[in-house]
Write a structure and sequence with these properties.
The protein has helices spanning about 25-30, 60-70, 85-95, 120-140, 145-155, 160, 165-175, 190-195, 210-220, 240, 245-255, and strands at about 1-5, 10-15, 35-40, 75-80, 100-105, 200-205, 230. By secondary structure, it is an alpha/beta fold. Helix 2 (about 60-70) crosses helix 3 and helix 4 packs antiparallel against helix 5 (about 145-155). The chain is about 45% helix and about 15% strand. The longest helix is centred in the middle third of the chain and has 22 residues, at about 120-140. Strands 1-3-2-4-5-6-7 form a seven-stranded mixed β-sheet, sandwiched between helices.
Length: about 260
């Protein structure tokens, strides 16, 4: 983890294919006013992992994050999660509500809250197929092909080729997360109703519709949740595609809590 600045702590939890380096446009800004801790989850860079083991899960990562918060004696923290990191953040809150000051979700993937529909089953089947293809490429010792095919299948032809070289490098360093089985914890409406802290929802204007659907379901569970802030011209990686707007929205929320 990277630990910068002083004051009330905010802990940043990355999504899949990522690590603590993805917050390079947030850490210098947030750490001016807050103690900013960017975590690399278990089996992500700088750890070298070969995909072996059964401890790559949302529950395990949530336990690890809670252990770090306790180890550093941070008390209650602002906990921010991007994409899969949103499921980790909500699971920390479910398991250890005493550690939470606020929660910030950036396209948080709380998939378990969505009803079982044909569309959801179709997404799960597509995910499974991408994982099988990625694992085959990795076992053939072709990591770049693994990530190229994963991203082009997920985002459409040419998605991988359009990514900036620094982003590609981070993804390749976390290549075995392409074999993530898509499990996103087990959060229910009952869990969310027990949360007694403020929650900020952030959605990219160009993000996949899936994330807006998740937020609609969250707001059905909790009618007091504010509508998500839609970050203009931002894709799913909101913190990277419109960092100025994103940072301002997060800091405004933090300053009020």
């Amino acid at each position: 983890y990277q630990d910068t600045g002083s004051g009330t702590p905010i802990v940043l939890i990355h999504g899949g294919f990522s690590d603590y380096r993805v917050w390079r446009k947030q850490i210098p800004v947030f750490s001016e006013s807050y103690r900013t801790i960017a975590v690399s989850l278990r089996h992500h860079y700088p750890e070298k992992w070969n995909g072996v083991g059964n401890d790559y899960s949302v529950d395990q990562h949530a336990s690890d994050v809670a252990a770090l918060i306790k180890k550093l004696n941070l008390g209650k923290v602002h906990l921010l999660g991007h994409s899969r990191g949103g499921a980790v953040v909500f699971t920390v809150a479910k398991m250890h509500p005493e550690l939470i000051r606020t929660i910030i979700l950036e396209d948080g993937n709380i998939d378990s809250i969505l009803p079982k529909t044909p569309e959801k089953q179709k997404r799960a089947a597509a995910w499974k197929k991408r994982v099988e293809t990625a694992r085959a490429n990795l076992e053939a010792r072709n990591p770049e092909k693994a990530v190229q095919e994963w991203w082009n299948n997920y985002g459409g032809p040419g998605t991988w080729e359009k990514l900036p070289p620094p982003v590609k490098a981070i993804i390749i360093d976390n290549v075995w997360s392409t074999t993530d089985n898509g499990e996103r914890g087990n959060i229910s409406c009952d869990d969310i109703l027990k949360f007694n802290f403020s929650i900020l929802l952030l959605n990219g204007e160009k993000s996949p519709k899936h994330y807006a659907d998740i937020y609609k379901e969250l707001r059905k569970c909790r009618s007091d949740l504010s509508e998500p802030i839609v970050v203009p011209n931002a894709t799913h990686i909101i913190h990277g595609t419109n960092p100025e707007y994103y940072n301002a929205a997060v800091l405004d929320f933090l300053n009020k809590h």
